[in-house]
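Field notebook, page 818. I keep forgetting to write these up properly, so this time I am using the form the group agreed on. The chain and the ligand, 26V, are recorded exactly as supplied. Prediction of the bound pose follows.
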Amino acid sequence: MSQESPVSIDPAEVAAFREAVLSKLTYSVGKDPEHAFDHDWFEAIALAARDRIVDPWMDHTRRIYRGNQKRVYYLSLEFLIGRLLFDSLSNLGLLDVARQALADLDVDLDRIRQLEPDAALGNGGLGRLAACFMESMATLGVAAHGYGIRYEHGLFRQAIVDGWQHEQTETWLDFGNPWEFERAEVTYKIGFGGGVTNLPDDPKGERQHWEPADVVRSIAYDTPVVGWRGRAVNTLRLWRARAESDLHLERFNAGDHVGAVLDEARAESISRVLYPADSTEAGQQLRLRQEYFFVSSSLQDLIRRFMKQNGDLRELPQYVSIQLNDTHPAIAVAELMRLMVDVHGLTWDEAWTATVGTLSYTNHTLLPEALETWSVGLMEHLLPRHMQIIYLINAYHIDALRAKDLHDFELLRAVSLIQEDNGRRVRMGNLAFIGSHSINGVSGLHTDLMRVTVFKHLHQLYPDRINNKTNGITFRRWLYQSNPRLTRMLVDAIGPEVLDEPETRLLQLESFADKPSFRKQFVEQRREAKVHLANLVRERIGVVLDPDALFDVQVKRIHEYKRQLLNLLHTVALYQAMRAEPHIDWVPRVKIFAGKAAASYHSAKLIIKLANDIARTVNNDPTLRGMLKVAFLPNYNVSLAEAIIPAADLSEQISTAGYEASGTSNMKFALNGALTIGTLDGANVEMSEQIGEEHMFIFGMSARQVEARKAAGEFNAQPWLDASPRLNEVLQAIHRGAFSPDDPNRYKGLIDGLIAHDTFFVCADFDDYWDAQRKVAAYWRSPKLWWRSAVLNTARAGWFSSDRTIREYARDIWKALD
Ligand code: 26V
């Protein structure tokens, strides 16, 4: 996927980079060019690029220190980064230089690029958002530090065997990681368990001494994050767990070799693996250990930095903002209190004011099963001091309400930090809310729903705390790096300034939507991306795609609320219609699916199998003459997304309204000129406002209608089946095993369940979805209209830049950047 160089590149720069790579290859990798494997070249190039980052990194760090600039700490258990080679080269303005330098050495940079493993330290949208935010914060010059865990194993690799998902261990560190710097000297002690004793000089019992039973060590690994044009470079600091070496050695020397090794393994297991959090596996002890481990390390680290420069923790909110990415780091509320009160001697009230002033929290889902709670028993066992602090926060919080004459039992129960029914549990959402001055949702609709659902009562008590920050995406990765052809067209059409100010300049593209020559070019670049994707699909799964067909794409985690099943039912309906009338002039269509299901999420895994069963049947049916193809691409990750998104004509964003907090792939597709078929859910709402509903295909029940139906308990799908012969036929075919002749009963449970209790209103929305899909096909038949809309999607997607989102966080929540 090479791109021609835009402007003439300076031969001296090329020569310098070539020499730098050769020097790295020789002295760091230890190879000569004749014997170097591709991986050796990758490492040499990455190290040469990294060298270019170090000076601006140190400059930036010094500048922040000297200016005593307000720092923003982004605490996230997930950073779904993907590959970094093109990210670094492109943001440093070195991409063309590097490509030429390597070509001089007979090495193809675009081939080498494929060798870098994806850093998949996240599950999906939440983790990818954190990665986009890190890039935007560096671009905008926010003095930001990301804090997380350096998982040895990221998200599992998905293999598809006989149509079923199999999970395999992911090993991104096998060949080392050239981007990181180990900071062996940056290390903290993290305690677990043990007991708490009263301090004699504290009659209220607010200060305590905690003597942990176990201690684990954290070690920092820093990855520089380069902003656009290398203007600022921030740090992503990830923690690795190590056994506390003294204890370990003592046991070892005392002859307890096995015990010592077990201790070590137990300590180090904390940073071993990313939890596939979209599942019920969350809630286990190791997960709570991970949360506390990274929160405590990060808070100790930022307090040390703060004390060095400022010294009075009561002033923390003036100099520091800490953003909690979901409730995963919510134990920070108690840990910050502990550090301030027990360790640094602030009074409870001083500490509380500083804590609330410093912390803010982002909510990413309303799904009740996704809201974190921890059993009081487990908390008492692992974090006894924190449990005390949480009780005390709760007591003061409830006292304050009573003092305001609020005695409504229902209200007090709802806002308590402790859930009393079915075993006492700590509600991390309420803890994060009470301990933060700002609580934000990630799209307008999601934020509105937060105010009337999960945080209804807390919102009544603190009406100014909830605010909205609609998500965004970084255009550097999701346009410039992943779609160089379209980027080139934009630069040619509206000038190179578009790269620096896409939010405003992209709008100038609107007038090009009416130019036939521009639309023709737009079609051509799309076709090239489709040819590229078709080759990839043929190589990976052996399915041959027609690049002139309509590429209809749904790629995201597999979840019932995202309704991949609805898309599959449409696929079957289309298949049946084509078979019934094969001589009609159908719009040739390719249905592309990709996404991982949590290992323990059986219905999601069955949906993957169904997609593959349908694919096999459809792709091998000669009556269709290739009019319909279905492809399920294994192992969806950031790199695969980068190949798929530029090639999509139609983007499927079809979640049950009210369930998708925002979505971010919806924005990536629109930016790259795909048209969206979607419900009015999450940020699709803002998309329809920015882009215009007439350039999208909106269908289905609204969030209000869904809510009304839920309230009335109308989950039975029989009425919808009775009203829709088409739906009936689709469900019957799947039910009787038309797509699973090897096991005709495979989908009986799935279909019976769907009819008896259609939790996500798949059947209720089916006919409307079918009609919207017919509009899609008809529109595709009018290329002028279709491609005009496609260009307008790109032109009007500027608002979805994560730079806009970060500016809003900086202005409203962090009070940084002015
Ligand atoms: C977690 C769980 C855990 C228990 C079982 C079910 C379940 C389902 C979903 C989740 C995801 C939780 C958080 C998350 O990833 N939210 C996503 O955040 C994105 C960035 O804000 C947003 O675009 C997505 O709409 C939202 O789903």
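OBSERVATIONS:
- Residues 124-126, 129, 277-279, 282, 326, 364-365, 367, 369-370, 442, 471, 660-664, 682 surround 26V (CB under 6 Å).
- The chain has three domains: 1-67+94-116, 68-83+118-471+806-814, 476-800.
FOLLOW-UP: compare against the apo run.
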